[in-house]
Amino acid sequence: MATMTTRHFLQTSGLVLAGLLLAACGKKEPMVPAVTAPTPAPVAAAAKVYVVGTDAAYAPFESQNGKGEIVGFDIDVVKAVAQKAGFEVKFLNTPWEGIFNSVAQGDRDLLVSSITITPERQQTLDFSAPYFDAQQLIAVKTDSKIVKFTDLAKLKVGVQNGTTGDEVVTKLQGKDSANVKRFESTPLALKEMEGGGVDAVVADNGVVVHYVNNNPASKFKTIADTSFASEQYGIAVKKGNAELLDKINQGLAGIKDDGTYAKIYAQYFGSAQATAGAALAPAAAASK
Ligand code: ARG
Fold first, then answer.
1. Do domains 49-133+232-269 and 136-223 have the same CATH topology?
2. How far is ligand 1, taken at its centre, from the CA of residue 41, in Å?
3. Residue 115: CB within 6 Å of ligand 1?
4. pLDDT at residue 203 is higher than 50
5. How far is the CA of 253 from the centre of ligand 1 (A)?
6. How is the beta sheet containing 62-64 ordered, strand by strand?
7. Atom of ligand 1 nearest to the CA of 54
8. Is the CB of 74 under 6 A from ligand 1?
9. How many whole angstroms separate alpha carbon 17 and alpha carbon 157?
C-alpha cells in the first residue's frame, strides 16, 4: 500500500465510500467484494469460457453420442480439470486435419484429442503434463497371417492421416510408399479393412481395442508389438499461453490428488489404475 498512487487511492477510496453509502442504506452485500484491492482488476467478470477442440471420432476418448453431444474419457477429464481450476469449457468438434492450426490461429483455446506429446509438436504447441499412457496397436482380420509390425513392410496399411500411427508406418515403409493409406479418421481406416481395402490398421491401442470389442461382426483381432514406443497424451494450448496452461496443470494435479481422475479412468477402462497399459492389455493379450 505504501506505493499506492494517487489515482489508485482515489479509485479505492471512492469504492469504499460507495460501499459505505450503500451500507448506510441497509444493504450489506456491496461491502463484500474486494473493492479495496490495490489494482482495479476486472472484478466479477464472468468465468471465461474456453473453447476446446477435439476430433470426436475417437471413442472411447472423444466421440459424439446419439444426441450429437461430445462425450468420452478426454471430455470428462477436461470437464473435471476445468471445474477444479475454476474455468468453463465448451467443446467443438474439430477435424484432426487442421486441429493444431485451430489453436495456433485462436479459433480454439485448448485441444484434447488423445494427442501424443511429441518433440515435433512441442515446437508449435505447449502441452500439459501427460494425462494418459498409450501405444500403437495393430488391427488385422482374425484370419490374417500377420503376426508382427515388420510384416507390414510391404502391405497396405490404413492409418489416420498425421497421427503417430501414420508416423510409425511411414517410417517402416519409407515416406514415398504408396501402401500407406491415410484416412481422415481412424474409424474410416478400420471400416476400409472390413472390405479388404487395407491389410492392417495401426492406431492408438485404446481406440483399436474399443473398436474391435464393439464391432464383433468386423472379425478383427489386435496385435501388440514391443517395438512401439510408449506415448503420452497431453492437453495442448497455443505456444506461450502460460496462463491457461498453468490452470490446466493445476486442475490436472488436483483431480489426480483428489481421486477424480482415478474415478473417470475406472469408468472407461474398468480399473482404477492410473496407467493405461494395464487396463488395455487383456484385449490385446487375448489376440496372441
Ligand atoms: N495419439 C495419436 C496422435 O497424437 C492419435 C490421436 C488422434 N486423435 C483423434 N481424436 N483422432 O497422433
1. yes
2. 39
3. yes
4. yes
5. 23
6. 57-58, 62-64, 70-71
7. 10
8. no
9. 73
Question: How far, in Å, are 15, 178, 218, 245 from residue 143 at the CA level?
Answer: 77, 24, 12, 46
Domain ranges of the chain: 49-133+232-269, 136-223
The predicted model scores a pTM of: 0.81
The preferred substitution site among 54, 91, 93, 113 for testing ligand 1, maximizing ligand atoms within 8 Å of CB, is 113
pLDDT of residue 46: 67
Q: Tell me which of 3.40.190.10, 1.10.3660.10, 1.20.120.790, 3.40.30.10 is the CATH number of domain 49-133+232-269.
A: 3.40.190.10
Of the chain, the end-to-end C-alpha distance in Å amounts to 70
Is 89 within 8 Å of 52 (Cβ atoms)? yes
For residue 205, what is its C-alpha cell?
A: 491401442
Which pLDDT belongs to residue 44?
57
Mutate to test the pocket of ligand 1, among 131, 163, 211 (most ligand atoms within 8 A of CB): 163
CB of 58 sitting under 6 A from ligand 1: yes
| C-beta of 136 in contact with ligand 1 (< 6 A) | no
User: Residue 30: which residues within 8 A CB-CB, separation 6 or more?
Assistant: 18, 19, 22, 23
Considering the segment(s) 136-223 as one domain, its CATH architecture is 3-Layer(aba) Sandwich (3.40)
Furthest-apart CA pair in the chain: how many Å?
85
